[in-house]
Amino acid sequence: MNDNSFNLVRENLSTQIADLLEDTIVNSDAFPVSEKLPSEQQLAERYGVSRPVIREALKVLRERGLVTLKNGLGAFVTKPKNSTVFSAVSRIMHMNNICDDDLTQMRAMLEVNAARLAATHITDDILQALRHNIEAFSDKTLSPAERVALDCRFHNLIAKASGNALLEIFIDVLVSLLTDYMGKGVLVAGGIDDAITRHKKILQALEAHNTEDAVTAMNEHIAASKRNVEVFAAQKTEM
């Protein structure tokens, strides 16, 4: 067996061990969050493999967001972060040539429903956070990166207000995927003022706990954002 074959076998084995460990972490109470996993030697003995295989398996789990590796201390179970999902979805999108139109359609489906739920469930704390967000977003001295961050935060707050934890995760990932897209919409003439106006309209509907108005306002905002991005793209083409 040559070196390449050996490495391939070890890689496949480490992935299999990672899958077994993941199943134990996710589907049992054996290793709660923050719990230290057994040592490499103990895991190697448990699964009948070498320590290098275990070491590689732990790296796979780290990439999946399930463990943190601390030098000299070992591996500790962690909750997967939304960024882990973002990385996986981003790779899938690039490899399958998924376009912005698919994203904006998904955005409409998720965010409109988030606004609908938020109109009923939103709390005073989140309403206040949205007010502060719009005030900060209105600062004309913001850098493009700062403005996009506030825009993303606005939509994530509404997702949080929906009261649906899974919807909140999906929208957080979706908004992260749309960061560049959303940034283009405010770069056209009047784009910033348009976004401010539409954010305020969404907020007013949520303050009134008016489901129909919240849905309409979010639909209009997403449609306007799409138009602004198309204008931006057309202007870039003409240059």
From TrEMBL:
PROSITE patterns: HTH_GNTR
Bilayer-crossing regions: none
Protein's organism: Treponema maltophilum ATCC 51939
Pfam families per record: FCD, GntR
Name of this protein: HTH gntR-type domain-containing protein
Domain HTH gntR-type: 11-80
CDD domains from the UniProt entry: WHTH_GntR
Alphabetic keyword roster: DNA-binding, Transcription, Transcription regulation
Secretion signal span: none
SMART domains membership: FCD (SM00895), HTH_GNTR (SM00345)
GO molecular function, one term: DNA binding
